[in-house]
Amino acid sequence: MVKSNRPQFTDVEGLAAMVGHGDAFGVGGHHFARLPVALLRAIARSGIKDLRYICWAGGLPLELLLEADAVAEIDLCFSSLDIFGLPPKFRAAAESGAIPVRDWTALAMIQALRAAQQNLPSMPFQLPEGSDMLARMANATAGPDPLAGTDTGFVPPLRLDTFVVHAQRADASGNVQIIGPRALDFAMAGAARKVLVTVEEIVPVGALRQDGRQSILTRNQVSAIALAPGGAYPASCLPFYVTDYQGLSEAFAAKDTALSDKLRLPSGGLSERLRKAAKVSTETVLAMPALAHGDKEASIDEVITARIATEFDNESFASAGAVSPLANVAYRLAKATHAPDMFIATMSCGHLDIAPSPMVLSLIESLDCETAAAHAGGDDTYSTYYQAGAVTHEIVGAAQVDRRGRVNTIALRKPSGSLLRLPGQGGMADVANMHRDYLLYIPRHSVQSLVHEVEIVSSARGLLTPAEREPMGYRTGKALVFTDLCVFRLDQTSRELTVIETMPGVTRQQIRDATGFTVTFDAGCREVPVPSSDTLATLRNRIDPLGLRRLEFVSAKERGALIAEILAADRAMVERLIGMQRSPVTS
């Protein structure tokens, strides 16, 4: 349906009333950034049923809709609550089989949305060689390209009935402003029959031209708009407010109160702390005196972080998603020490070429947004960087890896026979082949995590040798797996993992005993060096003062206490920075 040239202005309830039973339903924003929480809560209260949820990510929006029993089908690439772990309602639905879950590769979903956006019968995509994902996508198929004859993936249009998104501003004629990363917002809006938007502000016509580094969803693409200050809370909407991680922690911990109620905007509105934190500048953060964490021996998380950082140099282009503290810390450590010219992209390449600012939880997004040379969307990222083979490194976590370096992040079968649903592969199935270097990490090395053969191959380095990669336009680099016991390399000849380094003090027998396949050690196998005192000081006091990297290395039982410790330290640090911003120290 062709949209009107001028959207309707209404309120949040008015937008919710436009969602239909059984709609193919998409959600904008990314992780805990610009999520349309107020609108989702209203939709959940409306009694809507049988939605087909379609989005790159599930996470908080999907949890809200599942709680309201509003979802009949799920199409996604990934579902996580970021540092808070796996989403319980999604897991329960997937593990019980109560709701069909269809896992997509990120590129296939992008191309399917583009087919709908561009009114085409199908779109091609690079096959996720080595993974099982093509067989898991019912509508996708492989066939010879009609011109080149090479094997290519094809996917039909993925059309949405309704797409909901939160944005910073709209002008009085209905043009919508998005500041910062765009996620898949433009592709989803183009694929949707109805586009419903909540905004922080409505400004006069012409006012949007005054802002730099923005994206505009023009008014003829928008169906209706509602003014909803704080409409993303407790997620962020920069430059108005940052994510309320403490509020999210309390909401996820509450078992006797509906999640929708816990996510309500406080009666007094957004706190001054969240608003002021969004204004803290990188200059203020860098002016903060370094913390002093002492000179204790390096912990295993520090050893692994420092070791991964040595993989990067001034020619590296490293990409990080939003759910990987280890990757983010390792990248920033390298850029702050030996590789000042390396290119770092965060928020799934939404922030391009960031500075190595400290990992202060509440400020990571705002500092990266401020220092980035440019902002992009997920679909732009694939076209410009990933598919072009421009990215050299991306570090990704894995739940299970087998002797051939194949990964499972979709589901495990427990000894009892029941299913354990995992977050999903996100974009791993695509980028495992596209990036020059394929770097995996498993924080807790065990016979359950390092297995002879994974049950589901969600991603793999299917194109390994130069002869396989060069015809596809991909550079050939390393394929490594980092664990708390050793470093594996995927050998190009045997196509199996070989131990090339052991962690400090770890014996070969310890590695054999903790691995579910026969372990081979490289002839030149050596011990990973302990980080220097200077490296440790930079890591502890400048790059990761809250110790976010530790979240990757603790058990589920320990995670709650560690998150509470980090949140308390984060709040104290942010309040200190707000004070510095208000009363700058002069020389």
Automatic annotation (TrEMBL):
What is the protein name given in its UniProt record?
Answer: Glutaconate CoA-transferase subunit A
Pfam families associated with the record? CoA_trans
Q: Which InterPro entries match?
A: CoA_trans_fam_I (IPR004165), NagB/RpiA_transferase-like (IPR037171)
- Keyword line: Transferase
Q: Does the keyword Transferase apply?
A: yes
The record's section on Gene3D superfamilies has: Glutaconate Coenzyme A-transferase
* EC numbers on record: 2.8.3.12
The molecular function GO annotations come to: glutaconate CoA-transferase activity
State the coiled-coil residue ranges: none
